[in-house]
Amino acid sequence: MLNKVVIVGGGTAGWMTASYLKAAFGDRINVTLVESGHVGAVGVGEATFSDIRHFFEFLGLKEKDWMPACNATYKLAVRFENWREKGHYFYHPFEQMRSVNGFPLTDWWLQQGPTDRFDKDCFVMPSVIDAGLSPRRLDGTLIDQPSDEGADEMQGLTMSEHQGKTQFPYAYQFEAALLAKYLTKYSVERGVKHIVDDVLQVNLDDRGWISGVTTAEHGDISGDLYIDCTGFRALLINKALDEPFISYADTLPNDSAVALQVPMDMEKRGIMPCTTATATAQDAGWIWTIPLMGRVGTGYVYAKDYLSPEDAERTLREFVGPAAADVNANHIKMRIGRSRNSWVNNCVAVGLSSGFVEPLESTGIFFIHHAIEQIAKKFPNEDWNPNQRVLCNRSIAHVMDGIREFLVLHYVAAKRQDTQYWRDTKTRAIPDSLAERLEMWKTQVPDSESIFPYYHGLPAYSYMCVLLGMGGIEMKPSPALALSDPSAAEREFAAIRDKTRRLTETLPKAYEYFAQHH
Prior knowledge:
- It is a single chain.
- By secondary structure, the protein is of the alpha+beta class.
- The protein has 18 helices and 23 strands.
- The strands form 6 sheets. It has a 7-stranded mixed beta sheet with strand order 5-4-16-17-18-15-19.
- 47% of the residues are buried.
């Protein structure tokens, strides 16, 4: 029986993998994690999809167990500022899209929206976020749900099994380094062997499979299955096994970032329960802002062909203001794309070694979580059935290619064209399948049958939010709505207004909630 796993590389990817495999297989699996004490983690993956709660549920962890240790906060949406024009913003929320007579409410909004704000007319969360509120009351009860963390019948499902059944109202934002530290303790307590050492060489047998890794102080370490969590270096999958890397640079040119971790008085500042992607004053990219307990994580994502690292850092510091004066900047060179195959022979790449797209929709942690689920579901036995690898590689490729399409849509749909960088977003090549979809969406809003056809973590309403919010592509309502009775839609818009009013009057401030529970 194959049961010896060697994970090379720590950080968020390595320790999420180690903890999940231990939770899945217990003492029936032997896990060793080798990480260098000299290689720093990239650490920009501090915001997540709402599906990440399934990871913590699988590990048997409640929010009270891990959130305080990771300075974590809630994320109810992504807020896009100034992608359409200066002063404009909109939300891509974690909230199920309502339907009326078989048509999504956004379709009715195009026909007869109450205001010019599709997000506030069609969803509750945007107004909750604007007020800086928590989705949980001070006693821990969740909006429209009992206390604790979701319905029992939903626990134990993987992300792909869960999609479409419900929409949890928030994701998380946390310090990636602190989560890795927390999961280190969790994993070691459950039997994971932790070795801090430098890998000097990856050894291959006559078949080209990995037979072990040679370390500086612990000698040779061998296993059955090797998991590459070495980040952009991709020490095992690309360097040792020579698996080709497929670049996305032709459609997603942002290849650099500079990040700051800025200490702030969050009680005074308040916590906006969302991740913000700001395009204001950024000539060659956008700036993220992630509020945590005690600090704000921020960074400028840009394309080096349009901007120097020095100018990017200067712009970011000016954006943050005086609080950033003495904060060290972390410059990151991003490798945008994916390994052709993430599972090659007896090695699986997880995290940045597998692939990465820019962090516009907080996909980094999602990629890790999805890959780990695939490993657990398709764990090999002695015959190393190649179908397991084929299915795993297909699933990971679909997720990454689908996210690529979705991110390209942001730039194609953005109305902004005031610099060469933003003008080029309208003439740059886009995936052929997205071009076909765009033509359909101009006359029929996205639905589950017209978006990227394979699981990639994003439902149709996410596409609607981007298209309606960015403003660069004219959207039209379905022709059938001109013949339909609008009264039911009008009642649904009114119900949203009533629920919004009720929640904004009763929910606590986000900072107040976390100050009590931390």
